[in-house]
Amino acid sequence: MTTSARKAFLWLVLFTLAYLAVELHFNATLLSIASSAVSTAAQISDVEHYGRTVSGFGFGLTLLGFLAGSGFLPNSKLALLWGAGMIASVGVFWFAPGEELAFVFFPVVGTILAGLIAYISLQEPENTGILKCLVVLATFMTAVPGMYFGQKYLLDELVINPSSGEDRLLAKNIALLKSGLSNYSVAIDELDLEAMGGRETPEAQTLLSLIGAVAMNAEPFVNSIMDNATRKTIVEQVARNRMLVDLDEKYAQYQDAGANFERDFVQIYGKHSKEYGDVPSRAGRKVDEEWSRMQAELDNSFKRYTAASDQFLEDMREFYGQIYPDRLQRFYKSLGRCDTRACVNKHQEDFNKQWARSRSKAPAPDQMAFCRRETDGEAAGRAVGDFAGLRLLDLFDNLQGDRQWKCPAEPNTVFNRVVEIHIPSFTESSGGRPPFMSQQEFRAHSSVIQEVRNQLAGRGLKLPASWTPLNKQAFADAVYEKANGERVAKWRTSITNALGFYLPPGLSRQQLISQKDVQSVIRQKVGDDIYISGWRWDWSHEAFTRQVVLPRIDQAIKDEVSEFKSNAVNYADGGSLEELGKSAYRAILVPVISLTLSLAFAIFTAVKAVSSIVLLLTGGHRYALIASKVAVLAAATLIVFAPLSITNAYTESGAYKRLHLMAMDSSPAVASLADWTIRIEPIIAPIGMAMVRTYNPLGAAIVDAKSENDDESSPTRPVNLPDDYAPELNANLVREVQKAVGATPDGDYGPNTARAVRNWQQENGYEPADGRISVRLLQFVRENT
């Protein structure tokens, strides 16, 4: 072997060792998921995807091994190139979402590689390094999707989809039996996982992974468990033990969830409620603030009004000075010389023009505006010739009685007439308010009241129609009404933003929890599997068990019984339970196929890797090559036959041996593969388990068996009960009943316990008084002791 070939071969060995590590990791992951009683369909699907990807990797390396044996590997300088291509091929399946990218990636890349190989073969046949590299990549990229999709097709189209409704129904029941074995609810004769070391040992996990396939092919055993009475017993034991196990832990989780709800929900509601409740106290201060503000605004408005009135008076004095006495005297003297109406009208027009040119905003008055009638004394004096005023007896038409008019009148009268003439224009310019009102008159004026009402309405205060600025109580009511409206609107917005939906204010804690939307939130938090209507967060341990756990047990039993009572037609293609049946069938068959292949590939690869390392160290010497092939052949022989001499507690148990013999009659291949794997897998599994503890992308339940078995709070398996007893409770709850009825609290239901229970039932009026322990009796005991 040349130095260049040795380096290229070294890369192949390194990739082989990497594959071996990945294969062991997958093997342990599959073992953990397949043996778990709570594995989901999604986990089974993910681990299948993982397995097909790893198989493609291994198959590709196998083909490259044949190429290497023929000396067809590129030199070491191109090793990184074909190595990167190999990693990319595997990565497409492992990291790409779904399988869509693979359907595009491999045909496109494969076409490109095929074109390059053809081109180089024709144009540059001497460039063997690149040609070999491309052939290696093309081989690997063909092997990976070929194995991946080939496995998928074979499993789906030749195993899962052709399965009958009877097969799927049987798989559903076998899965239930497997769950019962896993959580110590049932035992197959002396095959008792808890007594034999627990379910976390590699031996137990291997048995749990493969027992389903063995049991499905053990026809006499199948006939026994398909009996409705037997299945109902298994259902009751499995469902109850699954729900009643770790009650303290479930209650602690309930309390933790309640504390989180208190923090994330109740406290938020309480915070907003406090802010909502503080508004009325703040509204009292707001009343005083708003009242003082209104009074100040009124005072300022009155000051402006008073200033305008004063200015109006000054303007009137100035105007009076302009027309009295000269202008009015001339006007009336001119009128006195008129002897016709036309003359009077002409002088009136002249006066009007002069008035219009003045600063007055009022229209010009008629000629009598600044006159006054004679008093009695003036009239008497005029009769004896003493009156010296201007008389217009013959000119004016508006004489009244025998009295005459004095034009113009005295200064005060004229001034007052000037003011009176201009009051309407002032009133109009000041918004309807006449001049010279007192402060009380000003506040009581309708225009002032309306202005204040408009201002307050702009600030959101709604006042009654009869309100005046003197009515503080009505004002306070309006402030409170506004504050309450604002707090209601703020409450609606803030509580909706904080919680995602509206809740009315002022709810007590229990009223809050009882709200429909709150119950929906609780349902989402705790899950549909345990939520009940009218959920509370203040249940005691006993109340939680009674209200939540026990009803869920009954419902779980009903659901399981309903499923196994379903006719096989419902599990057939097109039936209502088709997908459920396929999932159960897949969960039973995939482990025996995948675990066996994975284990065989891992062992074969390990032997092959050792052989390859020897070849590298010896330089590919002829005798070393022969020796390595002999070693591989010998290892293959040992892999097939050596496990027959390997035993463990489960393979030696009478129950397993009987199941195995029954399965050999129906399906020798499945029984033989399962037996081979059950014997050898526990030896190899710990290596992969250590890897999974470090990297666990699929969430496999890798549990330290020693720590769980040593845990004092670990669940107690159900007791072995008489044949005529329908087992419903585990040993802890049997002890609870025993204490209540005065029997020895040993958790074992026997004749003494049955007698004590019957006596207690008769004394306390429980019907039927049959001495049997049931969930109903447990509830009755708790309510009456």
Automatic annotation (TrEMBL):
Gene3D superfamilies (UniProt xref): PGBD-like superfamily/PGBD
Segment forming the signal sequence: none
Pfam families: PG_binding_1
Domain Peptidoglycan binding-like as annotated: residue spans: 744-774
Entry keyword set: Membrane, Transmembrane, Transmembrane helix
Record bears the keyword Membrane: yes
Transmembrane segments: 56-73, 78-96, 102-122, 129-149, 588-618, 630-650
UniProt-recorded name of the protein: Peptidoglycan binding domain-containing protein
Species per Swiss-Prot/TrEMBL record: Thalassospira xiamenensis
